[in-house]
Amino acid sequence: MLPQTSAAPQHLLGFDVMSEHERDAAQREHQERVSTYTSDFLARRHTGKKHPVEDFLFTYYSHSPGQLSRWHAGAGTVVVDSSDSSGTSDSGRASGKFYTRTAVTAPSGEDLGGVTVDVVRFRAERASIIDFARRLLSTTARKPAQLGCFGLHEWAMVYRSEHHGQRHEEVPLRLGAEGTDEVVESLNIRCTHFDAYRFYTPSAAPLNTHTPTRQKQVQMEQPGCLHANMDLYKWAYKLLPAVSSELLLDCFDLAWRIRELDMRASPYDLQEWGYEPVRIETPSGRAAYAKAQKGFAQEANNLRQRLLSTLDRVDALATRALP
Fold this sequence. Notes:
Mean pLDDT: 89
Structural class: alpha+beta
Helix content: 40-55%
Order of helices and strands: EHHHEEEHHHHHHHHHHH
Largest sheet: 4 strands, mixed
Radius of gyration: 23 Å
Number of helices: 14
Distance between the termini: 25 Å
């Protein structure tokens, strides 16, 4: 049941209003967009098959396909909902925690019921995650992109695999174990992302130029890092429902494309799966990787700004709504 509010329409200054027709169209578009990413994964899950590239966003991250498919208008939008004001109907596709019912005035002057994100409650109860996300996103966006890592984090995860075992055991190493080790030893590993570094083999960790930790994440994160940019999807879903589903899926789409580059530049032989390698063991391969990395860094910083703008809007609306 949605919490009730006595807020009058004049208290909704700064909010956008979405009609039920617009809501239904946005919902359909969202479902169609989500299905392009989830349909194959869900089919594989029923048969027990795995995909070494595409499954990652659904297994590493904690946001399920079902959660991804749920539509959210985002903070600052009132979705007109003519269903019973008890809030038991989900016709607004916006019921649940951090949602509240309110009044909204139609262009005709008619007072209607609406559903919107309770920005005051959201900001109060999610204060710690909002603060951390703001610091991480803003600090990362201000830094220059470092483009010299060449995706070696994936190679470090299988360094000396004959001793430590191999991630993705079902996929062969393109250069074999010995050839993989030679690449790791011949190039400078300089990963700044803790959640990649923590999967290094024990033999690879001392070879990294940096020693990332969770405590130093804000200090060390940088916009050229593929995994930091994939993680924008994580921060987007952690900030639901303030973040709109459109922005969430834009972050997901970027993560999807980055994951493909990440694995094409990895030591794995994925040609059987339709992926041509980016041969970072060669100068031309490293140049191709850095070029793609630079483009992703620019896209990611645009998404960082949109996420930060969402948090700014939450603050502005919540401050205005307080007595």
